[in-house]
Amino acid sequence: MREGETRIGQRPHRVRHFFLLGLFAVSEMERVRQGELSGMPARIEMLGRFEVFLEAQSETPGKNLLTGIWRKGEQILGVDKHDWLFEFVDAITGDNYPNPDRVLNYVEKAIKAYLKKEIFEGLKKPFDIFAVEGGTAGICYLFDSLVNNFLLQPGDKIALMIPTFTPYLEIPQLSRYRFDVVQIRSMPELIDDRLTYQFSSREIEKLRDSSIKAVFMVNPSNPSSSALKEETISKLVDIVENDNPELMILTDDVYGTFVPKFQSVFSVLPFNTACIYSFSKYFGATGWRLGTIALADENVFDAKLRNLPQAFIRELEIRYEVITKETTNFKFIDRLVADSREVALNHAAGLSTPQQVQMALFSLFSLLDEEESYKKKAQSICRYRQKLLYEELDLVMPFDHYDSAYYCEFDLLEWMKTHFGEQFGLDFQRETSITNFLMRLALEHGLVLLKGSGFGGSEWSVRISLANLETNDYKEIGRRIKKNGFR
After folding, report:
1. Is residue 306 part of a domain?
2. Which GO biological process entries does UniProt record here (predicted)?
């Protein structure tokens, strides 16, 4: 029973329609076979051949979803069937470099429609996306380009909203960054006798300091699984509008689809925000490496680039001269693409085209699910597992409105004091450590959990994923934790 990379688990038909489309693409390549070699798919009359292909599948798993995409794709994407079909078929074969390098044209339309529905509800401003190799790559690319373009420099003051995903704690300390980090810490809060982790007004007020150039957040958080409450987002808007208008906000919204009515900071502060989103968690696709970086068409990053000192502007003209002679008009999102391949290899930049097709198909699957049956099922699975675990450990249940139910984090020492007495907790603390407790839990009870301190949590906190084990295992996790405590 191991805490590891997390996922809900793929529905088979969401994978099958990718391979079914791939099967059609292979048949298109074989139409121009020369001996052992196959050619590239041909656009001429492809539409008719695809309709014949779908009819021939009869009860083939994945056919219904692919047919649904075929029938409604034109309406969703706003383009002719022939255009997007040819792009998807050519892309799924992987026979060409990604072009455009940021993201393929009709893949972009599908992903944008998905993000507007699931993550950016209420967003009025146009935005661009860069398809990347999962959220991990998005994090790396953003940090690198911010430094490469002098938007952040070693020693600059940034803020981290913690607890948070461990790399956000570790990257700023690397020698090439060495940022001065201000921690903005969430605290447990009860709403209607339910638990949530939120940032006090006093903590958020730290961002009024205009010397803080950027703030990094995971929303909903990892590992406390709480989304920002409305008052906090309103406070951020006020801070940006009145005290820190050049604040760069980087938000990682990978868990947003697990919160019933999620609101992204990007949707209310698009000018100041760069948003990372990964398809990994919601679609159980960590191995696919599918993610995006979203930036508003007009944004603070481009504005700050235009106002750099002349010495920096000249250095960037030299850096990007192999791509453009008009560096001042070279957008930050396109610099992200170039920097991802050390500029010199920009001609070969971009996420592999089969991966882009999978992202588009995931997006279209969600857009076709008008009853949101998949979302409701995914959320209910996590919440039921949470219920089993929390009841076994007698923990205060989270406040559903802000809760992603993707992780459970609790302070083991405080839990022991609450349930077995203050003295028991003090004796336990004196006789062992959280590391020893977790090692014994693994070695003697076959259960591997992570320390919450690695995410910026308290010394005795532990993190439990609610997404990667069988549902009935979560009651057993609680039993083993209790058993290990009474060794």
Report:
1. yes
2. amino acid metabolic process
